[in-house]
Amino acid sequence: MERYIQAPVKDDLQKKMVFVGGPRQVGKTTASLNILQGDEQHPAYFNWDFADDRKVLLQGGLPTGQPLIILDEIHKYKEWRNFVKGLYDKNKSRTSFLITGSARLDYYRKGGDSLQGRYHYYRLHPLSLYEITPNPSSQDVDAILKFGGFPEPFFAQSERDWKRWQRERISRVIHEDLVSLEHVREVGQLDLLALLLQDRVGSLLSLNSLREDLSASHEAVDRWVRILENLYYCFRLRPFAANRIKALKKDKKLYLWDWSLCPDSGTRFENLVASNLLKYCHYQEDTLGDNMELCFLRDQLKREVDFIVLRDNKPLFAVECKTGAQSVSKHIAYFSERTDIPCFYQIHTGKDDYEVADLRTRILPLTRFVTEILQR
Fold first, then answer.
1. DSSP characters for 314-362?
2. Terminal CA-to-CA distance of the chain, rounded, Å?
3. Tens digit of pLDDT at every position of the chain (376 positions)
4. 306 φ/ψ angles, rounded to the nearest 5 degrees
5. Is the CATH number of domain 6-123 3.40.50.1000?
């Protein structure tokens, strides 16, 4: 299947290099090879993890007559930025370069000359409902909630395969990506932290609580969480500060890139929505250059709306998650009177779809939200 970033990536490759980052096993290599119209044996595909490919690249042996070269996981090379810069500057008039990697290519800068102005960066997210089918059903929602959005377990639709895949993926993220990219001795502590974070999804993340559980310093735990963010294991959202309410200012909420790890259905649904909204924000940034951000809204009396999408730090819309069709949340009613948020969406897993005009609110199913709002 064609992934949602393929068309804009093809367009950008005519002008600059393109970097594609994202979680391990999210489909970066497959999407890139689809653009190349080839497979792993294509002469224009190079994987830094493969010794023969490393040898060819270090000897400067790029194949001739190839309009596109794919360099996979090359950020694991210490001098990768200078190396890629040299390849691009020497060959840019006749060859395009697509660089992929599971860690954040825009974060792990191992020194050397800046590549600023030579590339566009894309973040490939897990599958979402509108990628799977143009008219998603409740069965599609159930499947993506259960098996997550990573292609291999989702398409297998097997609980046994999902469990085995999860164990292998987390082990690779912690024990391969982490060790190769960070100088970390406490690998066992990060294993435990990754497990502890699964029970904190959708909640304000207390580093002090984690510090006690891990018997570590506040600074160490903060660094470990940031490492897991950089490895696309989790992400955090800051609170939005509205003028007429006493909003939280520092505490952040945590979510996982793989929502199928969430322990209960309500949290899993909220994390799925968070992931879809983050995907929407990243796509707008990566393709249009907009300054997007996903936040949440909460005051000091614990009134909260789950998410608020910002463009140039101004609210576009807010989203509240409910696993069943219900009346308008009292917190939406409260914040609609005290903020200038243009519209609120209360999304659920049922079938009801109606508007409450005086509260600037629409109550609708997740299936319609992702196809009507996130694809507009």
1. EEEEEEEE-SS--SPPHHHHHHHHHS--S-EEEEESSS--EEEGGGTEE
2. 21
3. 899 999 999 999 999 999 999 999 999 999 999 999 988 999 999 999 999 999 999 998 889 899 999 999 998 888 888 899 999 999 999 999 999 988 767 665 445 557 888 999 999 999 999 899 989 999 999 999 999 999 999 999 999 999 999 999 888 887 777 776 666 777 888 889 999 999 999 999 999 999 999 999 999 999 999 989 988 999 999 999 877 777 777 889 999 999 999 999 999 999 999 999 999 999 999 999 999 999 999 998 899 999 999 999 999 999 999 987 678 999 999 999 999 999 999 999 999 999 999 999 999 999 999 999 998 6
4. -55, -45
5. no
> Domain residue spans in the chain?
6-123, 129-373
- What is the secondary structure of 154-189 as a DSSP string? HHHT-HHHHHHHHHHHHHHIIIIIHHHHS--S-HHH
Is the separation of the CB atoms in 276 and 306 below 8 Å? no
CB proximity list for 44: less than 8 A, separation 6 or greater: 36, 38, 63, 66, 68, 69, 70
> Given strand 119-123, what is the order of strands in its sheet?
45-47, 68-72, 96-101, 17-21, 119-123
Token reading at 219: 């600074």
**Which residues lie closer than 8 Å to 251 by C-beta, 6 or more apart?**
204, 205, 206, 239
Residue that the structure tokens 């649904």 belong to: 269
Task: Report the amino acid identity of residue 198.
Answer: Q
Structure letter (DSSP) for residue 8: H
Of 205, 295, 206, 300, residue with least CA distance to 247: 300
Axis crossing angle, helix 265-288 with helix 138-147, rounded to the nearest 10 = 90
In angstroms, the CA 166 to CA 349 distance is 26
> Residue 192: how many CB atoms within 10 A of its CB?
14
CA distances from 83 to 15, 44, 79, 107, 179 (A): 19, 17, 6, 17, 22
CB neighbours of 297 closer than 8 A, spacing ≥ 6? 239, 240, 242, 247, 304, 305, 308, 318, 335, 339, 341
User: Which pairing describes strands 68-72 and 96-101: parallel, antiparallel, or unpaired?
Assistant: parallel
152, 149, 326: which is closest to 141 by C-alpha?
149
